[in-house]
Amino acid sequence: MAKDILTKPKAFYDNFHRKPDQNKQDTHYCPGCGHGILHKMIAEAIDDFEIADRTIMISPVGCSVFVYYYFDTGNLQVAHGRAPAVATGYKRTHPEAIVISYQGDGDLAAIGGNNILQAANRGENITFFFVNNAIYGMTGGQMAPTTLLGQKTMTSPYGRKAEREGYPMRVLELLSSLEAPTYLERVALTDAKHLMKARAAVRKAIKTQIDGKGFSLIEVLSACPSGWRMTPTDAVAWISEKMEKTFPVGVYKDVIKDRKPNTWTRMLEKVPFEKYHEILELTGEPMEIEADMSSVLDIYKNPEILIAGFGGQGVLLLGQFLAEAGMRHCWNSSWIPSYGPEMRGGTANCHVKISEKRIGSPIVAKPSILIAMNLPSLDKFEPLLKPGGLLIYNTTMISRAPSRNDIEILPIPATKMADQLESLRVANMVVAGAIQEKTKLFDEIILKDCLNTVVKHKNFIPLNLQAIDKGKEYVENFGK
Amino acid sequence: MPHIEISTENCKGCGLCIHICPVSAIEFAKEINKLGYHPARYKGDGCTGCTLCFYTCPEPSAITVYRKS
């Protein structure tokens, strides 16, 4: 605190340009709100540690949803209660980043209760600020898990009663029973002494992360004058007189000294490119080309493929195979299996998109190519096919003809053809051959090389190759 | 002399600084600002540069503390 001039910390934007109203200097918080106080302490610490350029603030759902209006750092606004999960993902992929998760009591203790418990139990090297105001502030003052016994809120108009609504949730006490967390403290934004303790705790928690010593969480008892229907000064007094009785301030866990620096820095193991081969048991050099789809017929360009059949027909594998081929051509591709109750003995399906453009969603709602390996799949998905789209259906398993007349239809006795190769399981690759011959989407050598990636048992690759050729041959001769 | 500056238009008149100031050097202004509040106002002398008003103030831009002169 050696600074001569204390003013707005640099970690705040000069102008809160994201804030929609005219005044770009003030916050959206109510007069006397504890959020602003905590924001300032965090911003000051970010300045002093000189970490603004590598800090990611994670804003929750709640009044502090707009943390990104204010902090001139990286910002992520995440789904309700899921900040610990997103923070974990971010931190593990960017171990050098300082990830600060800022959450309220509705977000952290209610909907995100399990998220914070698991992150704490894993000892993620992340700093959490948990703002506890004993109420749902943003939605107008409903009861929160942290609401005190006897406290009147919109949804506990006669006061919270343990027999009816349970007891106030003490998050810090809960977390302090776990082995992994490094530093847990509860502070209160009230008088001079408590404010200075809060400021010190904020800095210590961030430093814990900088040093790679693991999980830290500061619970901040914070005033909500609007939600509590009090003046700001009365609200601060209420924290000291009432809240602190249920939520005593103090250090609940501090093993910072026992933890060696950087031992709690987790990162994904960097695998050298050469190792991929070994891990994936690839047989040769990976083959890749940069291709464009200019020679492909318009209707087959950027295909959205839905593949459906019985479990065991290799439906999912066929999807993976096509998606892999897409990637090997340096296109974007996605593969997503659709799990549902049908998976158990019924139909399985997967969605594949292969595109020269970026893929927004992996879901194929209206396929341009439909592969139906059995009758239920044809019944279910034929209506979804785009007009002009391609339907490939397995005539061995489907007795009826397709009912649409605005689509291109390719019947193929895939199961029977596979049986001729003495393995029913390669019916999927017969279809793969048929798709390739029909659409000419892929480079054939690359396509076949993808078997090395998707087929687990390498001794089956020759059989799969035969099946692909058989499917191709069938289409070549089809209609002749 | 230590002193503070209060940005009138960014103060929401919560009064926390007035409440915490150990030397009672801050008061509410009589005029109403654009946000519709009576903002806090430094009385003009008495500031010891303790910085408590800065830390209790929820608004980032409302208070600046000059600890020396």
Strand order of the largest sheet of chain B: 1-4
Mean pLDDT of chain B: 95
CATH architecture type of chain B: 2-Layer Sandwich
- What is the CATH H-level superfamily of the largest domain in chain A? Thiamin diphosphate (ThDP)-binding fold, Pyr/PP domains
* Alpha-beta content class of chain A: alpha/beta
Largest sheet of chain A: 7 strands, mixed
**H/I helix tally of chain B:** 2
Pattern of helices and strands of chain B = EHEEHE
Overall CATH class of the largest domain in chain A: Alpha Beta
Strand order of the largest sheet of chain A: 3-2-4-5-7-6-8
How many E strands of chain B?
A: 4
Overview of this structure, please?
The complex is a heterodimer of chains A (480) and B (69). Chain A is α/β, with parallel strands linked by helices. Chain A folds into two domains: 34-258, Thiamin diphosphate (ThDP)-binding fold, Pyr/PP domains (Rossmann fold), CATH 3.40.50.970; 290-477, 3-Layer(aba) Sandwich (Pyruvate-ferredoxin Oxidoreductase, domain 3). Chain A has 18 helices and 14 strands. In chain A, the strands form two sheets. Chain A has a seven-stranded mixed β-sheet, sandwiched between helices. In chain A, strands 10-11-9-12-13-14 form a six-stranded mixed β-sheet, with helices on both faces. In chain A, helix 1 crosses helix 8, helix 12 packs parallel to helix 15 and helix 14 (414-420) packs across helix 15 (427-439). The longest helix of chain A has 19 residues, at 192-210. The termini of chain A are far apart. Chain B is 14% helix and 20% strand. Chain B is built from two helices and four strands; from the N terminus they run βαββαβ. Chain B has helices at residues 16-20, 52-56; strands spanning 3-6, 26-28, 40-42, 63-66. The chains are: A alpha/beta (480), B alpha+beta (69). At the A-B interface, strand 1, helix 1, helix 8 and helix 10 of A face helix 1, helix 2 and strand 4 of B.
